């Protein structure tokens, strides 16, 4: 799987825009970048190829190791530092430390992937966490949302590993693949993508070029080769 360039961003929220045919399109607004290139990782030196990006200014509480990193790159301290791995070293050509990356790397109609952390919902029961049916609500059943039996008695005399039980829900890293860019607004550093993306408003997300070609794109490449 090829690894593509991207930006660190923040989920602003959801709204809707109108297409040329008058239909309304639900979109998620993402404030992506500007991201500063803090470091460049190469296979020869570090064992892998990647861009180290920083996002958001940080004016205080900068640790000494982090301050040394920013000083070496000759850039202002950043609140968020992430690495975007690339598959080939030649993709790193054209990048340099201190360079600012903006939403102009994306275009309307392009497919992108969005990586985020889902909303944390704390400890939840099985009905909410796994969609258990539950018991009857009426006629004095006395069984509504409780777990009930979780295994047989004599055989196997234990609970099978991985059994769905109440527990912590949410707060997991999730990736949404192949969602379309509806609009790019370089002046506000905003990207509008179709549909919903993981995370609460204000949470960090990673916006990158799509790593998987869709069926239509594959058919187009086959047609071009012919």
Quick summary:
With 226 residues, this protein is mainly beta. Helices cover 13% and strands 38% of the residues.
Task: Describe the protein in words.
The protein is 13% helix and 38% strand. With 226 residues, it is mostly beta strands. It has one domain (6-225): Elongation Factor Tu (Ef-tu), domain 3, CATH 2.40.30. Strand 1 (6-18) and strand 2 (24-32) form a beta hairpin. The radius of gyration is 23 Å and the shape is extended. The two termini are 24 Å apart. The mean pLDDT is 87.
How would the blueprint of this fold be written?
Layout: E1 6-18, E2 24-32, E3 35-41, H1 43-46, E4 49-57, H2 64-73, E5 78-86, E6 100-101, E7 111-117, E8 122-124, H3 126-130, E9 167-169, E10 173-185, E11 190-194, E12 204-209, H4 215-225
Antiparallel strand pairs: 1-2, 1-12, 2-11, 3-4, 3-6, 4-5, 7-10, 7-12, 8-9, 10-11
Number of helices: 4
CATH topology-level name: Elongation Factor Tu (Ef-tu), domain 3
CATH architecture: Beta Barrel
Q: Strand content of the residues, in percent?
A: 35-45%
**SS elements, strand count:** 12
Largest sheet: 6 strands, antiparallel, barrel
Strand order of the largest sheet: 1-2-11-10-7-12
CATH superfamily: Translation factors
Low-confidence stretches: none
């Amino acid at each position: 799987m090829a690894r593509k360039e991207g930006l660190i961003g923040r989920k602003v929220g959801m709204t809707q825009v109108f297409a040329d045919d008058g239909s309304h399109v639900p979109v998620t607004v993402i404030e992506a970048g500007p991201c500063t290139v803090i470091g460049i990782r190469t296979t020869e030196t570090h064992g892998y190829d990647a861009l180290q990006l920083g996002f958001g200014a940080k004016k205080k509480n900068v640790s000494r190791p982090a301050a040394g990193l920013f000083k070496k790159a000759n850039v202002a301290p950043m609140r968020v530092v992430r690495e975007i791995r690339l598959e080939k070293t030649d993709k790193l050509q054209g990048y340099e430390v201190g360079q600012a990356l903006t939403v102009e790397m994306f275009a309307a109609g392009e497919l992108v992937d969005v990586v985020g952390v889902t909303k944390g919902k704390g400890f939840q029961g099985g009905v909410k966490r796994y969609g258990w049916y539950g018991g009857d609500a009426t006629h004095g059943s006395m069984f509504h949302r409780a777990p009930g039996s979780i295994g047989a008695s004599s055989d196997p005399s234990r609970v099978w590993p991985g059994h769905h039980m109440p527990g912590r829900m949410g707060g997991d890293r999730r990736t949404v693949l192949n969602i379309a860019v509806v609009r790019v607004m370089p002046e506000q550093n905003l990207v509008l993508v179709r549909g919903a993306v993981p995370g609460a408003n204000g949470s960090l997300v990673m916006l990158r070029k799509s790593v998987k070609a869709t069926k239509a794109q594959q058919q187009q490449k086959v047609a071009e080769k012919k």
